[in-house]
Amino acid sequence: MPLWTIYHSDSIFKDDSTTVPLADAITKLHVREIGFPAFYVVTIFVPVKSGKLLVGGRNPEKPFVRISIDQIALKMAEDLKAYKKWTTKIDEMLEPHIAAKGYDSEYHINETEKMLWKVNGTYAPPFGSVEEKKWIKANRVLPREVPYDQIVGNVHGAASRSKL
């Protein structure tokens, strides 16, 4: 599950006309580039009032967007080319929603152990597995076909099969 928490000046991203297109773009990026089911992607918009979002100890002159991305369902290989490729795709996806509108921004990516993540109280199937493909087709959590003790040895799935 990628979780995108988007902290932003309260003067922007005020309604569905601006939040939904960005959330859709984020979801499409993860579905298209990685192959995740759409329901794995969660986007939260957090407006921050003037005086409560400070950059360098000051109110920013322009609207500011600070994004925290938690990648949980799949870890990236420690590879500079893969990092650059992924962050370039993120930059390209964000551009029309942030930079093109004159907003300043910053983001970072955290990666969490997959076995510390559950969806509706269920561990997700391994990446690229037949069971995960069923979840993708249904676009929702399905009852697990593989018991927990058989998951433990394959928590990260086939990370090398990721498109990144």
Key attributes of the depicted protein:
4 helices, four-stranded mixed β-sheet, 4 strands, alpha/beta, 164 residues
Question: Considering DSSP H and I runs of 4 or more, what fraction of the residues is helical?
Answer: 25-40%
Number of helices: 4
* Strands in their spatial order, largest beta sheet: 2-1-3-4
Q: Please state the overall shape, judged from the principal axes of the Cα atoms.
A: elongated
Number of strands: 4
Following the backbone from N to C, one meets helices and strands in this order, namely: EHEEHEHH
Report the biggest beta sheet as strand number plus sense, adding barrel if it closes.
4 strands, mixed
Radius of gyration: 17 Å
Runs in which pLDDT lies below 50 for 5 or more consecutive residues are 155-161
Q: What's the end-to-end separation, in Å? A: 16 Å
Approximately how much beta-strand content do the residues carry?
15-25%
Average pLDDT reading: 89
Structural class: alpha/beta
Topology:
Layout (H helix, E strand, L loop, with lengths): L1 E8 L6 H18 L8 E7 L15 E8 L8 H15 L9 E8 L18 H9 L9 H4 L13
Parallel strand pairs: 1-2, 3-4
Antiparallel strand pairs: 1-3
Description:
It is a single chain. By secondary structure, this protein is of the alpha/beta class. Helices cover 28% and strands 19% of the residues. The chain has helices at 16-33, 80-94, 130-138, 148-151; strands at 2-9, 42-48, 64-71, 104-111. Helix 1 packs antiparallel against helix 2. It is elongated and about 55 Å long. The two termini are 16 Å apart. The model is unreliable at 155-161 (pLDDT under 50).
